[in-house]
Amino acid sequence: MSPEDAALVDRFLDMMAAEAGASRHTIAAYRNDLERSAEAVRVALATASADDLSRLGADWAELAPATVARRSAALRRFFGFLVDDGLRRDDPSAALPRPRFERPLPRILDEPEISRMFEAAEDRAASGEFTAVRNLALLELLYGSGLRASELVSLPRGAVRQGQPFLIIRGKGSKERLVPISSRAESAVRAWLEHVPSGPPWLFPGGKSHLSRVRLFQIVRQMAADAGISPDRVSPHVLRHAFATHLLSGGADLRVLQSLLGHADIATTQIYTHVDSARLVELVNARHPLATRIR
User: Fold this and answer.
1) pLDDT tens, 100-154?
2) Closest to 113 (Cα-Cα) out of 223, 237, 217
3) Is-above-0.85 flag for pTM?
4) Is 148 a catalytic residue?
5) 270, 254 in Cβ contact below 8 A?
6) Which of 172, 177, 213, 279 is catalytic?
7) Between the N and C ends of the chain, which has fewer C-beta atoms within 10 Å?
């Protein structure tokens, strides 16, 4: 990438951080995608023409469709920034490749499997052993409130307050949202707080900071194994998917679900309508009286 392009990318990323509230992970991803795109274009990125961009399809032919879609999105936003700031007159991004791909349905656990995980976690927590008490609190918040792994591990010590039936979560883009917390989750957290040392500011301390996402992933997989469920099928995100799918199948409004999950776009939330539809089709095929009728 030329020094001129690098300077413009820095300005663009500064705008993303200041105006769009992009996280450092998002900023790093945009920078990587723009740098890789500049290498592929082989001309100054800021002055690239529609013809230059149209040739990217061949260069990106071996990439996964999701990667192509992400890089194209980064370039479209970059060129939109250049036009908005008067740094170029035209926007050539219409020539970028637009791969078509089906978004995979999220993996979920059914309600009996979730019940088994809770039964196993509750049995272990009844011993009073501090890691078992912590693990039950983690499970209650993951499935009961649908938190992202990063949101859960970084909860401050005072996030759960007695008599306050919700959490204030700072999610992606530093956007705040209210998330309900059940009485049983509140109870599990109170039990865990009796074991938390007074020094760390985190609800789930670990090492020099809070519990890491990697460690949370390991804990959740172990809880699945304890319940007789294949650990390969379970992760913190799978529990978040289960939270969303089971709420939707129970009659929750899609807009409410969008708010609870912290999705900026309702199209992201709509994936759960497909999951629920697939479950209903499977149910009809398995249970309807005509399903076993021989033609």
Assistant:
1) 655 555 667 888 999 999 999 999 999 999 999 999 999 999 888 888 888 899 9
2) 223
3) no
4) yes
5) yes
6) 172
7) C
